[in-house]
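Good morning C.,

I know you're traveling, so I'll keep this short. The sequence:
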Amino acid sequence: MMISNSEIVLRLIVAFAVGYVLGIERYLRKKPAGTGTHTIVCLASTLVTIISAYGFQEFTTINHINMDPSRLMVGILTGIGFIGAGIIWRENASRIQGITTAANIFLIASLGIAIGMGYYFITGLTVVLAIAAHELSLWQKNRYIIKQKILHEESKTEAESKPGETESGS
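The tokens, ready to paste straight into the viewer:
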């Protein structure tokens, strides 16, 4: 079954929009992969999926040809694994950077596959959930930072209010 040119255009436009929307979140947080990277990964994944699923129809009539369109899709995810590994780095002994961005790139590639197959509902739902996950993560991080500042200020205030207690006890 072939898909129409208008359906191909629709899928690529959706891929562009999805990549850009999720890339904005990374860009605004000044992360290594922003709108350009996310958009290109989503477009490329969508393109390869369309080609994989619909591009080899003419060969299905030849005897002894067994096609598995998922093979190219697996190749997408394997390649993205290498890109993701390159995004992650150790800043110091206790801090690792880039894990969320690498996961986001993997998600973008997966969304590109879903868009290429025409699964718009699951794509839309996943985008909403991914944005919610990013926002909840930011909220949680900010809450933790504020709590740490309050605890630090309380301990600093306690230390300042008791300077003579240790000396007067002698």
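Safe travels,
E.
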